[in-house]
Design a protein that fits this description.
Oligomer: single chain
Distance between the termini: 43 Å
Number of strands: 6
Radius of gyration: 18 Å
Number of helices: 3
Strand content: 15-25%
Structural class: alpha+beta
Length: 148
């Protein structure tokens, strides 16, 4: 089967599109998808400890489904649900970026009883790189680092 990219070239389903879309070109659109996903899942919800995990899973799943088709990127979505009140949360993450193509965003949303924090990161894949190619390349790079 053949998928045609914007250039009209044919790409196998096993490969990512060759067009490179920089993160800066999709950041605003992705932010809107994240906020809309949070609102769709949580707007009418009231926090309860029994439902917290389900709320987080539903938000992350909705975002992942909506961004699956978006260009030559690998996405990471993490959703944290907290009860409003006296709770505290400290988070940190670190990534290696190609600043011209990759990036991240964090959306914070709240209602009367819930805080929802969703960091999303985007890592650009190399043109024509399959998932198998990516895994092999990362394993080889890890092996090279161990030898040094």
């Amino acid at each position: 089967m053949c998928n045609k990219g914007d250039s009209g070239k044919c790409y196998s389903n096993n490969y990512m599109k060759a067009e490179q879309v920089p993160f800066s070109a999709i950041k605003d659109k992705m932010s809107k998808i994240v906020v809309a996903s949070i609102k769709a899942e949580l707007s009418d919800k009231v926090y309860s400890p029994e439902d917290g995990e389900s709320f987080a899973r539903k938000v992350s799943s909705r975002i992942a489904k909506l961004v699956r088709w978006r260009g030559n990127f690998k996405y990471s979505v993490v959703t944290s649900i907290l009860e409003k009140g006296e709770s505290r949360l400290h988070m940190s993450s670190s990534f290696y970026w190609n600043l011209s193509t990759d990036g991240s965003l964090v959306e914070v949303w709240e209602n009367e009883t819930i805080y929802c924090i969703v960091p999303v990161s985007y890592t650009h894949l190399r043109a024509h790189e399959t998932v198998l190619d990516l895994v092999c390349r990362l394993l080889l790079e890890k092996k090279k680092k161990k030898k040094k």
